[in-house]
Design brief:
Elements (H helix, E strand, L loop, with lengths): L3 E3 L5 E3 L1 H25 L5 H35 L31 H4 L1
Antiparallel strand pairs: 1-2
Helix pairs in contact: 1-2
């Protein structure tokens, strides 16, 4: 579970320091790849020989940074939600995870025939 902080309006948000710690290793690996790409480029073609690999590395970092932040924010929100209240026990009114029919469908679910 991601650490969280409460804002004045009760919103749960990811903790920036925890996010930075999570991303530190990924960022260092990307920067290492940039250095390797530049070093692998032939003399006289440093830019041409490294520009595309470096662009791709930073695209990977951008995607990973955004996905990680979203995932950590989601984990904070999910941790704040407890369907059973304080005790964590699920309400008797909630459905069980068991299917209600032999075919695995719940009552009122979409059936294959309805999709055709």
């Amino acid at each position: 579970m991601a650490p969280k902080e409460k804002t004045m309006d009760g919103d749960s948000k990811l903790v920036v320091e925890a996010y930075l710690q999570t991303m530190r290793g990924k960022t260092e690996a990307i920067l290492r790849g940039v250095a390797e790409a530049v070093n692998a480029a032939p003399d006289g073609a440093w830019i041409n020989g490294s520009e595309i690999p470096v662009r791709d590395l930073f695209a990977d970092l951008r995607r990973a940074a955004y996905e990680t932040a979203l995932q950590m924010r989601l984990e904070v929100k999910q941790a704040a939600f407890s369907p059973g209240g304080r005790g964590g026990e699920a309400s008797a009114e909630q459905r069980s995870g068991e299917p209600e029919h032999v075919d695995g469908q719940r009552a009122g679910g979409i059936h294959a025939e309805a999709l055709v």
